[in-house]
Design brief:
This protein is mainly α. The chain has one domain. The protein has 2 helices and no strands.
């Protein structure tokens, strides 16, 4: 646990989870983009193709959003860790000014 009370492992786990979600959504985007509508009736192929293209785009956008969340959480954890290291250093110095360890 950090000096500020933040659980690093939980933040790292959350970041990993969002990263995995981003990977899944990107995979889904590619799968939807690669689907063939040739087996459908000619009268609906255009609509089906438009539908797949739109949902492939939505999945890609979702992947970008999830990736952004993963990066933001990871960066925040890094900043908190850096701040904790500075705080620890100052607290250690303070201990040194109080006299020898008893």
């Amino acid at each position: 646990m950090s000096v500020t009370g933040i659980e690093y492992n939980q933040m790292r786990s959350a970041s990993t989870g969002w990263g995995e979600q981003a990977d899944e959504m990107e995979k889904t985007s590619k799968e939807l983009a690669g689907l063939s509508v040739s087996g459908l009736a000619p009268s609906v192929q255009h609509v089906a193709s438009s539908f797949m293209e739109a949902w492939s785009g939505y999945a890609h956008e979702s992947a970008d959003i999830a990736s952004g969340f993963a990066d933001a959480i990871s960066t925040t954890a890094d900043h908190i860790n850096d701040a904790d290291q500075v705080s620890k250093s100052w607290l250690d110095r303070l201990d040194g000014h109080l006299g020898p360890t008893r």
